[in-house]
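Hey team,

Filing this mostly as a record. A colleague (T.K.) asked me to run one chain through the structure pipeline before their review meeting, and I want the input and output archived in the tracker in case anyone asks later how it was produced. No errors, nothing strange. Just documentation.

Input sequence:
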Amino acid sequence: MSFAPQLMRSSCTDQLCRQKERTVDIYEQKQDDICVLRVGSPIDSSTSPELGAKLEKLIDAGTVHLILDLDGVPYISSAGLRVLSLALKAARNRATDGDLYLAGLSSTVAYAFRISGFDQVFCVYDTIEEAKAAMAASRALHRDTDLPS
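Output structure:
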């Protein structure tokens, strides 16, 4: 009977080791001044620091019109939600028209956003094209309201 906990501890340790080695797949595409990031792996405690660093680097460099394509993300943890909320805040603080839109959420990821209330914080679209169109319209509205009278 004493071997079961030891085996469980061993397998948990192995799983944690594999999890720490995992990286996030991020593909960047810039069009005009909108940056689309396609994420192709789970966003959890082992991958969110890498995604957060990528977003921080882009925002610090002045890229504040971001769309995250989460179509390839099967799962997002609270650590992932935190990274995205910090990036959203940073983009909005950096520029008056800065924003982070999301597209292509799987039902599992959409559920995580819904139960956390983040679906009320982020602009979420079914496709990248819809997100780009909405971002362009929002930016045009900002330009029109920023004009001196």
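Quick notes for T.K.: The mean pLDDT is 85. The helical segments are 3-21, 48-60, 78-94, 107-116, 128-146.
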